[in-house]
Specification:
2 copies of one chain form a homodimer. Chain A has 504 residues and is mainly α. The first copy, chain A, has 19 helices and 2 strands. Chains A, B: It is found in: Membrane.
């Protein structure tokens, strides 16, 4: 369009005045620049939109739940707008149907708990503020024409200030933040509109009924169509964090000992798994939010109404504690100062055994949580982990003695010592300094520290099992397989063979 | 009341029928139980309220800002309600003044950035949805009487679904979440009410003007009366976290080495300081929120409009990384397995020197941030810290050599070695096992690790200093004191002096 118009313009100039200098080259350049600029802008804009749509598409594919939530909100709003479209309904609730639409838009959240919480908050807030507003109005009305606005103004100021301040109280903020906001809103509207509209009670009744309509549509839709329970999400989050910790721990230690052999063989998937613990590091806010929502939810699936959601926060905190330790462990893997390979080889197997038994405990816990059954193997797994801790400690104790006693080992013994690490380390060169051992010793002591932190998680999950009355495992096979390895240990005297098949 | 009624009832029974058995003892007991129950309930209720008020009072004393915010909201709502109370104003904006009240209640947040962001979101969301709503309405109107509700319904469903889904996109969620909600709300209201009310444009104009009134009152009050800038808060939070880390680090190491001497001398204030780093552990969500709000804020105080707030998030992340390390360090202090006192004594001073030079760097950084000036001493402090790292490493290297060479030191040397720890450790008993050294070695290696992490923070602050154009310190005294220690180090032939001065 712009191109054509400017061509026309040029053409006109040339026709109207034959001798006028030809403007073409200059305007042509400007024109071209402008077109180029437009295309660039448009191209940039289209590119941005394309990128945005691509991101949205990826999100939708990754988490179809979010698309479903969008559709549910659309459905709820369409339903509530029926109150306007249909004449009989419209006559019933009057022009206040707006409040129903507003309720749906504002109250509908992605999880059932959040929606329920907001609905209850909105209802209670509206009701309390409405009654209080009518009461204050009555007092103001009876205190004379002159005092009326003053009484109303002061009460509004005081109540709004106090209520706003109360939103900062942690206990209020966690559960009733929205209710307080609605309280302030309703009280202001009532005390303000009451000055004009004399049909206060009628108004209040209408508002409450429209809110009830909006809220019930929200609750019904959010609970009937693909309900997303905040409790389920919290439960899953904790399970996933446990599993991620387990994988990270395993990968970290494997990576540490692989490091010097093939330092470039660090593939993408492995590195992603290794960093899984980072999800646990920053999940505190999410956990608290979900636990708060979950408390509003009725009994659903395997969860009763008074499911001990707070215990999940406790478990979450101990998981984070463990994740901090793995973060430091991760630092050891990435560190520039590494123990020399021959030293690493000595503690390789025993460290791997401790890390795998630790991650085994974590996975057992995740499985127990997932199935909500008391794990029959957890005690055994913990025992194994503690045994590995003792072994590692022994290996460490025997380390310096030999360091002292053997001053000049032949180089061949260094090579030959290989992988048998339960035997005391006899082949360390006397020249290997403390600084060379230090990184390895730090890793070992972090692994030992980590095992202690895992036991705290075990206690947390056990408490949850008691509080939430997890069922005991009744599987006979499992209890059998539970016994046989115990026997094995005593016969073989090798802890490695005891390794119980993981149930995850 | 209940007491009187039940007495009356009893009296009546006795009078109406002379031979009826006397009910007094039983009802008396019930009555007493009821009264007791009521008192207990009332007492419990009053106790709860008292506790709540006490908590509120403490919060108000601790953070008077929050009280001020409450008063500001009260003031804003009172001001906006004037539009109702005063007839001329009322006639001006019509019955839609409700929207102004609603805007104030919903939009007024504690920080200027959050309030501004919400106002802008509300304005843009309302405007876009209003225009789109009118457009869709026009199309629906021209598509015939029968199709009209269908076109409106489908467009409402699709737009509401898509907009709700877009709220899950991280980029949208961070900045435009509220705007999208207002978009959905306005679009629903327009497309729904338009079916009834034919004065759509007038309605839209009224709504926009009332929203503008409410929003401008909010903005004026939040910016003029004790403004609370999200940017200021973020800046302060980062500074405080740096200081808390510094104190925690110091206290942790002091506590570690005091432990065995007077294990009960752990006072409250000390333990509180030691746990200060925990604030940094969980501040990610707060930092991100504040950074998002800060981006809406205009230039204020020392911050320009385009202040690099994102860089604060980067610094925050590296502070957290450091805090993870201190968390593990804290674990060493609380650990049951401790190195024996005589071993601790050997590394006491050098560890303390490293920790105090590390915390010195942190405090320098906090000071540089606070004053927004390039610290002239930071390079020196970092150099000192790295020197202490080298010293600690040397001390560790010399440890096992002496462990080997000196097999039977006289007990007197153990006692005599005391506090001079730059000299090689000559007095360790040959019998002290590796397990005894391990906890101490872990502590040392964590301290070394921590120093590396602190350098990452230093780099982050340096980047900020460049981005935000921190002024160089012009203080003469400081530059003098800057030179003298440098001289000292160069005389000592310390590798650290070669360290190129970083430009903070």
């Amino acid at each position: 369009m712009g191109k054509e118009a400017s061509r026309k313009l040029e053409w006109r100039i040339n026709v109207s005045d034959g001798v006028s200098e030809r403007l073409e080259p200059e305007t042509g350049a400007i024109l071209r620049a402008w077109t180029w600029f437009k295309r660039l802008m448009l191209g940039g804009f289209i590119l941005k939109i394309c990128k945005f749509l691509e991101k949205a598409w990826n999100l939708a594919v990754d988490e179809p739940k979010k698309v479903i939530h969008g559709l549910k909100v659309g459905l709820a709003i369409s339903l509530v707008s029926l109150f306007y479209y249909m004449r009989p309904l419209y006559d019933g609730v009057g022009g206040n149907a707006m409040w129903a639409v507003m309720t749906v838009v504002v109250v509908f959240e992605s999880s059932v708990g959040a929606t329920l919480g907001k609905c209850i908050n909105r209802a209670i807030g509206t009701f309390l503020a409405g009654s209080l507003g009518v009461g204050v109005h009555w007092i103001a009305f009876h205190s004379g024409k002159n005092l009326e606005p003053i009484v109303l103004g002061i009460s509004l100021f005081l109540l709004a200030s106090a209520a706003t301040f109360s939103r900062f109280m942690p206990t209020i903020k966690a559960r009733f933040d929205y209710g307080i906001m609605i309280f302030i809103l309703t009280f202001s509207l009532v005390s303000v509109s009451g000055y004009r509209v004399d049909r206060l009670l009628e108004l209040a009744q209408q508002r409450l009924s429209t809110i009830a309509i909006g809220a019930s549509i929200c609750i019904i839709i959010s609970m009937l169509f693909c309900p997303m329970w905040a409790g389920d999400e919290l439960h899953l989050l904790i399970c996933q964090n446990l599993e991620k910790l387990a994988h990270s721990l395993d990968e970290c230690v494997v990576e540490y000992f692989r490091h010097n052999k093939t330092s470039t063989a660090k593939d993408e998937a492995c590195s992603k798994k290794m960093k899984g613990y980072r999800c646990a590091l920053n999940s505190k806010a999410t956990e608290e939010l979900k636990a708060n929502f979950a408390r509003w939810e009725p009994a659903h699936g395997r969860f009763s109404f008074r499911h001990p959601w707070k215990q999940y926060l406790k478990i979450g905190a101990s998981i984070r504690n463990c994740a901090y330790c793995i973060e430091t462990l991760h630092g050891c893997v990435d560190s520039e100062t590494q123990a020399p390979p021959h030293l690493k080889r000595h503690l390789n197997n025993i460290c791997m055994r401790l890390s795998s038994s630790s991650s085994n405990v974590l996975q057992e816990l995740a499985f127990a949580l997932k199935t909500m059954k008391q794990s029959s193997k957890i005690n055994l797994s913990v025992g194994e982990m503690n045994f590995a801790v003792q072994e590692l400690k022994h290996a460490l104790i025997s380390l310096p003695n030999h360091n002292i006693s053997i001053k000049n080992p032949s180089p061949s013994t260094v090579e030959a010592s290989g992988n048998c690490n339960t035997e005391p380390i006899t082949s360390i060169r006397a020249s290997s300094s403390f600084m060379e051992i230090l990184p390895l010793a730090t890793l070992a002591s972090l692994l030992i520290e980590n095992a202690a932190k895992i036991e705290v998680i075990v206690n947390g999950v056990n408490e949850l099992a008691v509080l939430a009355e997890f069922k005991p495992t009744t599987d006979n096979k499992k209890s059998k397989s539970n016994q046989s390895p115990k026997k094995l240990t005593s016969e073989n005297q090798d802890p490695e063979t005891v390794k119980i098949p993981q149930k995850v």
